[in-house]
Specification:
Layout (H helix, E strand, L loop, with lengths): L2 H12 L14 H5 L3 H15 L5 H5 L4 H16 L1
Helix pairs in contact: 1-3
Amino acid sequence: MNVFEEVKKAIIKIQPGIEEKKIVPEAKFKEDLEIDSLSKVEMALALEDALDMTLQDAELEDVKTVQNVIDLIESRLKVKNA
């Protein structure tokens, strides 16, 4: 599974019309992608459905970039599959 692609799909779902080329690991949610805290929660819900996992609100508070959420999901998947 490509976690980056799943995150990209979730961002596109909550930000219709966003340019896909803007969605890169270094992209900051607020500054680069114009994703506010409510949209970040909607993205997390989309990812939870797609990946069959639960992301805690406290974990999402520290997520500032696309790479941060990729790292969070990958670490959760390692624990889940261990």
